[in-house]
């Protein structure tokens, strides 16, 4: 009986082989493989490879679906925008592999902090967003943020390293703030930047006041596009005085903007916006051209001063032809390079890579002076003074305001002694009183820039001052 079954089975198998269609079999395998690849493609299109979180494309799809449901059930939802503070510095110090490990651990930590009605997304780089599909009270959103900060008090453990990180967050509420997905994310981003400006490691809820600020920023962005064509920019000059003889030794060129719609806009407000939009490039080029042209005119009139300084944005320094443009403009206006001093803020030092240090070295070799502005207020260490070529340190006004304080005085003294050893010129900014002048003189600070001698002046007033100064010297 068993033998009969085996024979039958073998015959059946042979029959199957005879009826086997090879092309259909291959087509079936191909079809299954294609479905599998398409499925993987859809997953890759919607999920971040590193963290396995939904990506920005999928985030907007989910947010738009939630916005549609909100219209029907009359509920509220929220978007919490998260940015890791100083992530660039972490990446530079630890390397990109550890940086990626941080992002993975960070996403796992955040996922443990959010509830069932929320989803975490990696938008881009170190930027994440939590979509809260619905909530009843704003306190629920605040609890999520506070839970994140509570968990971030402990360092992330990566192999043998312990890394402390902090985050800044911005929150927008729908439908209160908007029912448009793009706008909600922009509002979040704006609120997050406000958190950064207020000291980082905090969250900001977007509100009507922030909305006014947002629309003002949008107007500034729009108006900056044609600011040069409308001839709304102007250069003011603040003299730098040697307090030993009251002679002008230099001046700083300061940008001013007076707009028909906005009125006078502070550089502290419009420069960061111009840097974000890239408009700082054309504005910066205009400033350098205007300043060197004016320096040429004043030198031809025989006015006495050693340097004229211009503030440079790190965005300008990223241009490949930055050094070439500076030297070409000096040649164009027949201004010796050592007449020009470029000022970079201490915070800019973080963004200066090895290639840009080489550019600064080349500029210094060409004769152009380099000054560090706001020294003592940023994040830099003394190692920057070794690695970056510098001619001048400008001590920030915050130290001068508290010069009678023992600690401030001791710090100024240390900076002065260090600068003498390194052969740097020292300029003190924001000097307003005779007492400050006398105390600075005792510390060896004689080059003064501040309201005590002069506020920033329009071109024609600065020219009168230079004319009088030149007569005194004669």
Automatic annotation (TrEMBL):
InterPro entries xref list: Cyclic-di-GMP_PDE-like, EAL_dom, EAL_sf, GGDEF_dom, Nucleotide_cyclase, Rev_trsase/Diguanyl_cyclase
Organism superkingdom: Bacteria
Gene3D superfamilies, sorted: 3.30.70.270, EAL domain
Cross-referenced Pfam families: EAL, GGDEF
Entry-linked PROSITE patterns: EAL, GGDEF
Chain ranges of the GGDEF domain: 75-208
Domain EAL, chain residue ranges per copy: 217-470
Protein name listed in UniProt: Phytochrome-like protein cph2
Organism: Clostridium gelidum
């Amino acid at each position: 009986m068993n033998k009969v079954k085996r024979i039958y089975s073998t015959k059946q198998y042979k029959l199957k082989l005879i009826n086997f269609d090879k092309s259909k079999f291959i087509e079936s395998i191909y079809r299954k493989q294609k479905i599998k690849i398409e499925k993987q493609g859809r997953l890759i299109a919607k999920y971040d490879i590193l963290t396995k979180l939904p990506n920005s494309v999928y985030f907007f799809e989910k947010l738009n679906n939630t916005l549609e449901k909100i219209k029907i059930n009359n509920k509220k939802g929220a978007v919490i925008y998260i940015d890791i503070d100083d992530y660039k510095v972490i990446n530079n110090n630890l390397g990109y592999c550890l940086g990626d490990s941080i992002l993975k651990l960070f996403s796992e930590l955040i996922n443990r902090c959010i509830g069932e009605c929320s989803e975490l997304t990696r938008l881009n780089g170190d930027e994440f967003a939590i979509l809260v599909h619905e909530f009843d009270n704003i306190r629920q959103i605040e609890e999520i943020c506070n839970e994140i900060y509570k968990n971030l008090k402990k360092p992330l453990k990566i192999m043998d390293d312990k890394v402390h990180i902090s985050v800044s967050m911005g929150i927008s509420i729908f439908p209160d703030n908007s029912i448009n997905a793009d706008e909600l994310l922009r509002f979040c981003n704006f609120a997050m930047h406000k958190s950064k400006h207020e000291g980082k490691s905090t969250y900001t809820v977007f509100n009507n006041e922030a909305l006014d600020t947002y629309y003002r920023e949008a107007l500034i962005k729009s108006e900056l596009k044609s600011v040069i064509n409308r001839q709304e920019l102007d250069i003011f000059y603040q003299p730098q005085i040697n307090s030993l003889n009251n002679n002008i030794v230099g001046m700083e060129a300061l940008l001013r903007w007076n707009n028909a719609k906005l009125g006078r806009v502070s550089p502290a407000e419009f420069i960061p916006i111009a840097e974000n939009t890239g408009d700082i490039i054309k504005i910066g080029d205009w400033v350098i051209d205007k300043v060197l042209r004016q320096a040429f005119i004043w030198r031809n009139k025989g006015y006495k001063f050693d340097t004229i300084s211009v503030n440079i944005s790190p965005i300008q320094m990223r241009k490949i032809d930055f050094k070439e443009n500076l030297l070409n403009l000096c040649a164009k206006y027949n201004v010796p390079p050592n007449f020009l001093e470029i000022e970079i803020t201490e915070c800019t030092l973080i963004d200066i890579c090895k290639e840009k240090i080489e550019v600064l070295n080349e500029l210094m070799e060409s004769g152009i002076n380099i000054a560090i502005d706001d020294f003592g207020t940023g994040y830099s260490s003394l190692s920057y003074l070794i690695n970056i070529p510098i001619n001048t340190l400008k001590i920030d006004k915050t130290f001068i305001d508290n010069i009678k304080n023992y600690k401030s005085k001791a710090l100024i003294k240390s900076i002065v002694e260090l600068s003498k050893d390194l052969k740097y010129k020292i300029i003190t900014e924001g000097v307003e009183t005779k007492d400050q002048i006398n105390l600075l003189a005792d510390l060896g600070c004689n080059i003064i820039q501040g309201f005590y001698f002069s506020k920033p002046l329009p071109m024609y007033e600065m020219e009168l001052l230079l004319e009088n100064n030149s007569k005194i010297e004669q």
